TrEMBL record:
Recorded superkingdom: Eukaryota
Record protein name field: CHAT domain-containing protein
Segments forming domain CHAT: 199-360
Biased composition (Low complexity): 103-125
Taxonomy of the source species: Eukaryota, Sar, Alveolata, Dinophyceae, Suessiales
Sequence segments annotated as region (Disordered): 1-20, 34-125
Signal sequence region: none
Location of the Orc1-like AAA ATPase domain: 419-604
Stored Pfam families: AAA_16, CHAT
SUPFAM superfamilies: P-loop containing nucleoside triphosphate hydrolases
Organism of derivation: Cladocopium goreaui
InterPro entries (alphabetical): AAA_16, CHAT_dom, P-loop_NTPase
Length: 723
């Protein structure tokens, strides 16, 4: 039976056997030539036992309490309390904590719970923080002989990654806390049958104001429908504050009733009358108490603002009468900029009115008095943090809303110049693509120059606006030649663009796993994986050669569909070459995409109707005819280069006539002059010959120049040419 001393020594050796072995392993990794003593003869590293007793005056100070790292079992910012005894020594609890675990382990090559490797920089941890290492590790090592970080790095030959330094005093006493992300909501209604609202400019103005102020605000954008407005105001009841900017039109009936113009599912007007608005808002129950701020950017919205105030909304900004779009954007910019820098609601409103009042154009500046603030009581104390809910941040993103930053980064083709009419065509296509019996493939067909491409781009902008059916997820492919490989590569390029817009990282194909589609900088045309038919064996058809690319396209659209929570995606195919109608392989290519996805929709712009199916999917044909006479006359006036006079009309009338390229008489307003000229052009022989064809209208209008032929001469020439 061993003696008590031997038992204690055996127990002690068993207890400290593993740390000693770790130090021995660390020492074995270092070359003997590196381990040299300093000038005073003190070794850089000494292990386990000292050479002799340490004098009392050189005894090291008691180590400071050990603090665990974040991710090592203690909550973020946790600091072990310093519980000392009366003699200044650590309490038994602290001593047990030190002996049971340590802050820096010697090089074991293992990883801690935080994921950091403690292999190569064990010596650096000892050098940087010797006070956090238990005393049995420091036995035989004096403070003067402690190596520096540079010395340890120079002497270490380990190849393991370094340990992240632990900043006990600084990090845990002064933790870095990010300001919570505040949420501001922007709803808009710009129906097809109403004057368009420049939504992108308004969103960009407000977003830039918050970004420049550094207020950590996320602007969420969506379309204003009865469903979206009701859902947002309902969710506001569970929050401590909600700020909403509503941009829409107001309508006043012949009886004097006022209504708020929202949108329906097809993009047309849905007037929400004052009585119906009171029912939705819940006037009796005052359900808007948690909707802390409403900016009602609507002309003649003073009466509507009173409804929101009576329903419990504490602060409402409204417009007394009609204001210019420039004035509304300038006021909003200064208003939200002031809120973002921490000014109160009342001070921000006053600053915005002052800024607008000093606009260089007096007509714009005079409209500053039309911006009214309801609920000025306590507005001098309400800040953006309180209006958005103090300390509250949204945990998720509403399905109907888009982040303004992501919306502004979406790349869209430029909108066509002087686009007129076609509202019914856009509504018809929205009807086919949405609803319970929505179709997945439509063909908009018509002769060359009728305006298919312009209508396709305009439909892309409308349907892909935030909150609408194809919210921020629509692309366009232009087919210029009957080239199957080129068409497939063009679709692949558009797929990559959609993936970037949707923040989806596409998985690489099985034949090219070196990099993902969204991470490579090369397009499909220049990538090594693109297929050249000329280099392929002659016994293989094009579809067989395109099999890897076809599979990649299917997987890519499926990934986007899953990432967008099965939200619809639109692909506009501008088929200038007529490939879809003429080539069965092209139809098979698009048919496979529709067959292997659920929410992908395809709009084909073709010069001929498409009666063949795209795989199992039927194509709905929508014919496109010429413009109506008023729209054709307005387009003609916008494209000519001189004023019209009496020689341009069959029946001369005393008065002034207007042309888009000329200067009207100063005594007649521009708008009224345009309307009167359109009435004079009604039934004109030239418009009758043009037949509302936009391409022909632009071509003939370019000939109406100073000292050029009259409209009557051009009409006679067209009659002769037509036989």
């Amino acid at each position: 039976m061993p003696s008590p001393g031997e038992a204690t020594e055996s127990k002690s050796r068993g207890r400290f056997k593993r740390p000693a072995q770790l130090f021995e392993g660390l020492k074995a990794k270092v070359s003997e030539a590196v381990w040299k003593q300093k000038a005073r003869g003190t070794p850089i590293v000494s292990i386990a036992k000292g050479s002799g007793p340490r004098p009392a005056d050189e005894a090291p100070k008691p180590p400071r309490p050990y603090v665990t790292r974040p991710g090592m079992g203690s909550p973020r910012g946790y600091r072990e309390p310093w519980n000392s005894q009366h003699d200044g020594s650590p309490s038994p609890a602290i001593q047990r904590h030190r002996t049971g675990c340590c802050g820096v382990r010697p090089s074991s090559g293992r990883s801690g719970r935080s994921g950091n490797s403690y292999g190569s920089e064990g010596s650096e941890g000892l050098a940087a923080l010797p006070k956090d290492v238990p005393q049995f590790y420091l036995e035989g090592m004096s403070h003067d002989s402690t190596p520096t970080v540079t010395e340890c790095r120079a002497s270490s030959s380990c190849s393991s990654p370094p340990v992240v330094p632990v900043y006990h005093d600084y990090f845990f006493t002064s933790p870095i806390r990010r300001e919570p992300l505040r949420q501001v909501y922007y709803l808009y209604a710009s129906p097809l049958d109403q004057p368009p609202i420049d939504v992108r400019s308004e969103v960009e103005t407000i977003h830039d104001a918050f970004a420049e102020s550094g207020s950590h605000v996320q602007l969420n954008v969506g379309v204003a429908t009865v469903e979206s407005l009701t859902k947002l105001l309902t969710l506001a009841r569970s929050q401590r504050g909600l700020a909403l900017h509503l941009s829409a039109h107001a309508y006043r009936s012949e009886k004097g009733d006022v209504g708020l113009v929202l949108e329906d599912a097809k993009g047309f007007s849905h007037v929400l009358w004052k009585k119906n608005l009171e029912e939705i808002l819940g006037m009796r129950d005052r359900h808007l108490q948690n909707t802390s701020l409403l900016f009602l950017s609507t002309c003649w919205s003073q009466e509507l603002a009173q409804v929101f105030v009576e329903c419990g909304c504490p602060h409402v900004v409204s417009l007394r009468t009609r204001v210019h779009d420039i004035a509304a954007r300038r006021f909003s910019q200064q208003f939200y900029l002031s809120l973002g820098v921490g000014e109160s609601l009342l001070a921000s409103w006053q600053a915005a009115r002052t800024c607008l009042h000093n606009h260089p154009e007096s007509e714009i500046g005079d409209q500053s008095e039309h911006f009214i603030l309801f609920g000025q009581h306590a507005a001098d104390k309400a800040t953006l943090q309180q209006l958005c809910g103090e300390g509250e941040s949204a945990e998720g993103q509403l399905r109907m809303l888009e982040d303004a930053a992501q919306f502004l980064e979406v790349k869209m083709p430029p909108r066509p110049e002087h686009f007129l009419g076609r509202m019914q065509s856009i509504r018809e296509m929205m009807h086919h693509f949405s609803g319970h019996q929505s179709r997945r493939a439509c063909a908009l067909w018509g002769p060359e120059g009728i305006g298919k491409s312009a209508l396709g781009v305009e439909f892309l902008h409308f349907a892909a606006a935030p909150g609408r059916h194809f919210s921020c997820c629509a692309g366009r492919v232009h087919i210029e030649a009957m080239d199957l490989v080129g068409i497939a590569n063009a679709v692949n390029e558009e797929l990559e663009s959609l993936a970037v817009q949707s923040q989806v990282c596409l998985r690489p194909g099985s034949s090219d796993s070196r990099s993902s589609l969204c991470s490579t900088g090369l397009s499909a045309r220049s990538a090594e994986s693109s297929i050249s038919i000329c280099e392929a064996p002659s016994d293989l058809d094009a579809m067989t050669l395109l099999l890897p690319l076809r599979q990649r396209l299917r997987r890519g659209f499926q990934q986007i569909e899953r990432a967008r929570r099965r939200a619809p995606t639109l692909l506009v195919v501008d088929d200038e070459a007529g490939a879809v109608a003429a080539d069965k392989d092209v139809r098979k290519l698009f048919g496979e995409l529709l067959e292997h996805t659920c929410q992908l929709h395809i709009l084909i712009l073709s010069r001929a109707p498409i009666y063949h199916s795209l795989g199992p999917t039927k194509v709905v044909n929508v014919p496109l005819s010429g413009l109506k006479e008023p729209d054709a006359a307005k387009l003609f006036l916008q494209r000519i280069h001189r004023m019209l006079d009496d020689r341009d009309f069959p029946d001369p009338v005393v008065g002034n006539a207007d042309a888009g390229g000329g200067e009207p008489a100063p005594s007649v307003p521009q708008r009224k002059l345009m309307e009167s000229t359109i009435l004079r052009l009604k039934g004109h022989p030239l418009l009758h010959c043009l037949g509302g064809h936009p391409g022909k209208i632009r071509e003939v209008a370019s000939q109406v120049t100073p000292n050029g032929p009259s409209l009557m001469d051009l009409a006679e020439g067209m009659v002769v040419d037509n036989g």
